[in-house]
């Protein structure tokens, strides 16, 4: 008698490996499509379903990811915009972490796997509530603007992607002003919930040698 496979059978991630799904620089599992190419990004964005790492454009391997991670280092601490955050899940393509210079979009798990390649461990992690609130607030504003990260770009010279047309930039400026307080009132409980469940928008991790 022929066997019928259960419709609930678990398909391993490795089954998705192929030219369109290259290996993740952090854990070698296949990367899957997440966001199509957008203005201000070097290419479409893929994500790893295992460690959560996001990759903009073509992956360049673990060494390139570690070099970008090192640029975020301040002594033994690295601060990341968390791709596994609650804000990222809600924001999608409007997530504030999709910054023009970013090629790798980190999670704590991706950082852990990357630094393990050079005999290091994540010794501790800490939610950064104020930085996370600002990122979540900007993510919400991105849902109503043509450009991305317009408000943080104006307030603290953060990397931003202005809208293509001058009239769009005018509307973005007005929308950011008018909706600043309503967006903040929504961002506070969103980021609070995210932080309490370990999915804050900005996380700092302390790296130590084995």
Task: Describe this structure as you would to a colleague.
- This protein is α+β, with helices and mostly antiparallel strands and 210 residues long.
- It has helices spanning 62-71, 86-91, 108-116, 129-142, 150-156, 166-178, 180-196, and strands at residues 31-35, 45-48, 54-56, 73-74, 77-81, 104-105, 120-127, 202-209.
- Strands 1-2-3-6 form a four-stranded antiparallel beta sheet. A four-stranded antiparallel beta sheet has the order 4-5-8-7.
- A hairpin with a 5-residue loop joins strand 2 and strand 3 (54-56).
- Helix 4 (129-142) packs across helix 7.
- 38% of the residues are buried.
- The model is unreliable at 1-11 (pLDDT under 50).
Features:
8 strands, alpha+beta, about 210 residues, 4-stranded antiparallel β-sheet, disordered N terminus
Number of domains: 1
Identify the overall geometry: globular
Separation, N- and C-terminal Cα atoms: 54 Å
Sheet with the most strands: spatial strand order: 1-2-3-6
| Oligomeric state of the chains present here | single chain
Low-confidence stretches: 1-11
- What is the average per-residue confidence, as pLDDT, rounded to a whole number? 90
User: How much strand content do the residues show?
Assistant: 15-25%
Number of helices: 7
Number of strands: 8
Gyration radius from CA atoms, angstroms: 18 Å
Helix content: 25-40%
- What is the H-and-E element order? EEEHEEHEHEHHHHE
Class computed from helices, strands and strand pairing: alpha+beta
- Sheet with most strands: 4 strands, antiparallel
């Amino acid at each position: 008698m022929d066997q019928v496979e259960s419709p609930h059978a678990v398909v391993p991630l490795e089954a998705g490996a192929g030219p369109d799904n290259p290996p993740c620089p952090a854990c070698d599992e296949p990367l899957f499509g997440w966001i199509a190419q957008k203005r201000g990004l070097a290419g479409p964005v893929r994500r790893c379903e295992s460690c959560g790492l996001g990759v903009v454009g073509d992956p360049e391997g673990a060494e390139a990811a570690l070099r970008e991670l090192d640029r975020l280092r301040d002594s033994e601490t690295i601060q990341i915009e968390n791709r596994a955050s609650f804000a990222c899940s809600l924001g999608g393509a409007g997530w504030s972490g999709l910054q023009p210079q970013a090629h790798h979009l980190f999670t704590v798990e991706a950082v852990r796997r990357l630094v393990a390649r050079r005999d290091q461990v994540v010794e501790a992690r800490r939610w950064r509530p104020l930085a996370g609130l600002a990122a979540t607030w900007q993510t919400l504003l991105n849902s109503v603007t043509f450009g991305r990260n317009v408000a943080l770009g104006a307030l603290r010279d953060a990397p931003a992607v202005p809208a293509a047309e001058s009239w769009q930039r005018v509307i973005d400026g007005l929308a950011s002003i008018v909706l600043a307080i309503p967006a903040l009132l929504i961002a506070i409980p969103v980021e609070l919930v995210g932080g309490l469940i370990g999915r804050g928008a900005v996380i700092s991790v302390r790296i130590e040698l084995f």
